[in-house]
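Session log. Operator J.P. requested a structure for one protein chain; no other inputs attached. Running the standard single-chain path with token output.
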Amino acid sequence: MAALSVWLHAARPKTLPAGSAPVLIGTAMAFEVGKLHIASALCALAGSLLIQIGTNLANDYFDHAKGADAPGRLGPVRATQAGLVSPAAMLSATAAVFLLACVPGLYIVWRGGWPFVVIGLLSILCGVLYTAGPYPLGYLGLGDLFVLVFFGPVAVGGTYYVQAHAIGRDVLLAGLASGLLSVAILTVNNLRDVDQDRLARKMTLPVRFGRTFARAEYGVALAVAILAVPAILSGGHPYVLLAMLSGVPAIPTLRTVVTTIDGPALNDALASTGKVLLVFSILFSLGWIL
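Structure written below.
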């Protein structure tokens, strides 16, 4: 049970709404046009979560290897850095999870065609290269763009297309909201780790442009996702404005992000931002199909 707890912790469950929310939104939009395909939706969910978990495990391994996860870090304990899992075991687990993601991926490719081969391979490759290789995305400050694209329009659009065999502007715009809220989760993570990342030469956006920029990025991501996108889409689906209610629990979290540099408080803010994303996706989905 102790070993299971370690692996569950390494999977970073507080961040997993980023993988499930876009699938929920894409599935609701497919349902609204009478194209719900349950097997495709479940495979999209399984594939999305497995790729995210694989990315988290790869991050655990490669951040340790590059010295970014040093003793005294403000974030939650990382399994490899803390010696709870050997580097070899973490690397093997990463490979196993990514391979497992290919199982639902095969069904998605069969259902949706060769473009999903490209999407799946790019998702896995970027998940590894987020922290691996000589030019890792996260260390170059490109992590925000990766998260925006792959946890946003790609995830929502892919989920919708594999069910409806079509795609449109509204689907991609809804994906933008999901991606921006996932960027907000990453921003809190990078804001918390800014001092340690600077020492490790991990050039995230907060390291490059400072805490004030990161706080502004967080606020803009929330505002555009929660307020602007539902307002734009409400012309044809007025009840989608229900998604704006997710801004209520976001207010105290935004206040924490703007006013504190305390590690434990920002850890709580990260978890709360994940909950905001989940609430947003549920309310958006309900509003879309009403």
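Operator note: The mean pLDDT is 93.
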